[in-house]
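Give me C-alpha cells for this 293-residue protein.
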Amino acid sequence: MDPRTTISGRAADRRDRAARSRRRPAITVRRPAFYLGAAAAGALVVNVLVGVDPAAQAEAGTAESVSVARQLGLSPQPGPAAVTTDDLQPLEQLAASRSTRDAAQSQAQQAQAAADQAVLDQQQAAARAAAEAAAAVAAAAAQEQKQVEEAAAAPAAGAPPASAPTAAAVEADAVARITNSAGSVKPQVQTAANAVVSNVPGADGITLGGTRASATDPHGHPSGLALDYMVMSNATLGDAIARYHIDHWDELGVEYVIWEQRMLSSPGGSWQMMADRGSATENHMDHVHVNYR
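Here you go.
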C-alpha cells in the first residue's frame, strides 16, 4: 500500500468526522421547533375530527348541572319572568284605591271636626244666653225688692197708721180655699181672702196661691203673708180684685199690690212699672199678687 494513500484516507476520515461534528448542534437546535409544530398540527387535526361546537358544550354543561341538582334532590328554578303592563295594572289600581280612600277619610275627618265645632259653638251660645237670662232675673228681683223696701219706708203722706184687720172690719160669708206648700198662711191673710171671695164676683172660682218656699220677697209667700189670685186670662176679674184691695186697703191690711207688671204701694199712690221678667207669670199678667201686713 502506498503510504500517501493511507495518510490521505485518514485525513479524509478526520475531515468527515469534523464536518459531522459541526453539523450536529444545528440539528439539536432545530428539533424543539419541529416538535412544537408537530404538536400544533396534531391538536388542530384532533379538534377538527373530534371537537364540539360552543352550543353543544353549553348544553353539556347545563345537562351536567341539572344532573347534579337532581342527585342532590333539588328542582331547577325558572328564571324571573318578564314584567308586563298587565302585571302592573293591579298595583296601579291598588295605589289609586288607597289614594281615594285616604282622600275620603281626610274629608270625613274635616266634616267631623266642623260638626264638633258647631256643637261647641251652640253650647257656648246657650251658656251665654242662660247666663244673661239669669242676670236679668236677678236684676229684676233686686229691682222689685228695692221698690218694696222703698214703699215700706215711705208710706203715703197723711195716711193713717195701719192696723191689723179684724173679723168685724170686713164682711165675709165664704171661706177661701188657699193652696199652700210651706205651711198655712197668717190668720189675717186668710181673713182677707175670705172677704175677697165673698165680695168680688168670680173670685170664689179661681185658685189662690199661698205659702211656698221660693219667692222673691222672703216676707211674702215664705212667711205666709202673700196671696196670688190666679185670674189667668180674665183681666177684668184681675182689675176687680186689685180695685177691691185698693178700696179696702186698711181693712184688709194690704202692704202692696202687683198686677200686670205694675206695683202699687199705697191706696192713694200711683202704679209703678216693673222690669220685664220674661214671662206672663213672672210679669204678673195672669195673677194679682198681694202682700199683707
